[in-house]
Amino acid sequence: MSLPRTMVTPMADPTPAERIAELRDVINRHAEAYYEQDASEIPDADYDRLLRELLELEEAYPDLATPDSPTVRVGGPINTAFAPVTHEMRMMSLHNAFDLEELAGWSERVERRLEGRPVPEFSVELKFDGLAISLRYEDGVLVQGATRGDGAVGEDVTHNVRTIADIPNELTGAPPVLEVRGEVYLTLSSFAALNDRQRKDAEAAGREPKLYVNPRNTAAGSLRQIEASMTADRDLSFFSYQLGLVEGGPELETHTATLEWLGSLGFPVNEHTVTSAEIGDVSSRVEALNAMRHDLDYEFDGVVVKVNDLRLQQELGADAKAPRWAIAYKLPPEERTTTLLDIEVSIGPSGQATPFAVLDPVFVGGVTVGTATLHNQDQVAEKDVRPGDKVIVRRAGDVIPEVVGPVLSERAKGSKPWPFPTDCPVCGEPLVRPDGVAATHCVNFACARQVRGRIEHWAGRTAMDIEFLGEKNVDRFVTAGLLDDVSGLYSLDFEAILAMEGFKEKSVDNLRGAIEASKEKPLGNVLFGLRIPEIGQVNAQTLASSFGTMDRIIEATVEEIAAVDGFGTVIAEAVHAWFAQDAARALVARLAVAGLTLEAAQIDESLEKTLDGQAVVVSGTLDGFTRDGAKEAIVARGGKSPGSVSKKTLALVIGAEPGASKVTKAENAGVPVIDEVAFAELLDTGQLPEEFRKEEKDA
Fold it and tell me: Is 127 a catalytic residue?
């Protein structure tokens, strides 16, 4: 398998010997940063690719292989600040598989070594992203904790290991000598709390915070502290996953029996380990574990597959670097390095100027990424990324790709910081950033990007729900000069649209009907559709019901708006400032002339407040209600109808074609999912029908 060159700028047409020397040099440099300094410069996936390229070259040119090559080395050199510990049994590394085909190939090699005998069972467990550790107990007392080091010699970190709450200092029922191997790691919540502490301490001292980069490096650095009190302060955790030297222990036949015994002694054992009889089942388990990658409070970057039978493990043995009876399947990388080609600025619908990175496309997080967010001006300055830099790009799950930071060792000499532009790249008007605010804005109300964005938002399903418009048509109409703001929708020249390519009588009639129908949308939808700063879907409905008319909102003081339930000064000032603009008031006036609903629907005060304070979410189309009518019915009875499900939601009402994500979220949160019949009873009585009262039935 041929893999791309990563993080090496090769000489022109290097010979195999030159390329091998080149790769060994850069791998050794990154290994030193990772193992000795706990400050890796590149993601693991890129390091693995460098190592793989070197291995392929050494296999193709065996006369160029050397016994000190990184391909046969375990770990890295030890830190001389700690006393050396010689492992009585080597702490080996693992060979890697990068796809399911390679995993199957490993299984076939195992069977060949066993002379065709099938493996009866595999153990499948998580590969944690932390620091390997060896714990030695004598007569049940912890006497030594050592890092893996280079596999033969590690570092004595006993004083620090004793501060980790997961690691017992004394054991009951242990044999005379017991060596337990496992992983020291930092949970994501502890990592977040540690960085939060860094921010608060820096703020109190009036300086810029120095934040930790990732949990793995932080865990490794924490374990290598000279002062044990500093390690104790980091809230490290531990999982046991293997036995080393044991004298006088029980006769164990399988790896999973080993884990059960370790658990009985008081060691934490990960609960996600399973056994599989077939390598095909292993592949399914790997995919299932990958799907839950972001559901846990710790990071794992792969899955370790082991032959479960300990006698077969002994028979299979090991090579110079790793056991033949185990392999690490590496999950798709969530961080990769690539070249930052340029930094550009996009203008959002509300005028916010957001910098983003234009990248040399890279496969990361399961997709090919060509752009990544840089958030705002401060983030670019803090990360100090520059066009031409090699940068680390991260994409985890469905999260928008972002640039983590530069690889400083690869930065070109003479590189200069990127300056944030002073003018809007769309309309050329000055960009403005008020004091104390992170975001920079184009404040030109007529900026073409903002015009398009406001119209797209206005037509959206959760605002005015204008079907048959869409982003492409908005762009065409604005470009053709048929549309310059949302009020222009209500005076569109449909004859001109009919003359445009792709439009026929029916499509124009459909669009005209959808625009006309939007005039009936309630005031709350109009307020949300206007993209007023700080006003979302729920706030818009609250604002409408609190003031009743658009005119009253326009004339309201900051104090009056702040008094609305759930608002406060920040929201009030944003709303008041938006309506104080001449352009905003002129737009509202045009909407009034167009015949839109600028008064809130009158709530029937005679209705009993059966849903007082309760949140009921509606998804899909109901037969007995319009899309907004169901929400109005909830509000009229004192309830709330937010756009998303939470644990506080009383019920999710579903009609035809409900949102799948809302249903899934409701089921996971234990929120009852009810139909229209049950909804009618809920409105009348404030009570769910008996079959939906899960908590009462369980009780």
Answer: yes
